[in-house]
Amino acid sequence: MGRRALIGALGGIFVGLGLWAAGDSGSFARTLADFGPRNDHLVHDFGAASIAIGAGLVLAVRKTSWRTPILIVATVWNGLHAVSHLVDVSRAHSLAVGVGEAVLLVAGTALLGYLAATSRENR
């Protein structure tokens, strides 16, 4: 997969997760965000942030001047999200889901960080 296609795919994942969180917070919370009492407002906030990051990544596929800055923003946001999941991994309703999410978030952050560090706007 080419670099631009990978950035677009990551953007699509962020948008997809965000739309799920915003559109069906109950299902999203039961499946991925079951860390205690449900809070639809916070799930919707996650959805909004995820859609914004994802849209930026999708746009950065063509808007080359956006590529490095949005990759940096996505790396920071995803990294902070990963830290939150690592801290709360034992609070997940299902330990397997909690560990799985933490691993995917750390791996995603590493990938985004690599893409940001090696980004050249005109690639």
TrEMBL record:
Ranges annotated as spanning the membrane: 5-22, 42-61, 68-87, 93-117
Keywords for this protein: Membrane, Transmembrane, Transmembrane helix
Protein name stated in the entry: DUF4345 domain-containing protein
Organism: Kribbella sp. HUAS MG21
Lineage start: Bacteria, Bacillati, Actinomycetota, Actinomycetes, Propionibacteriales
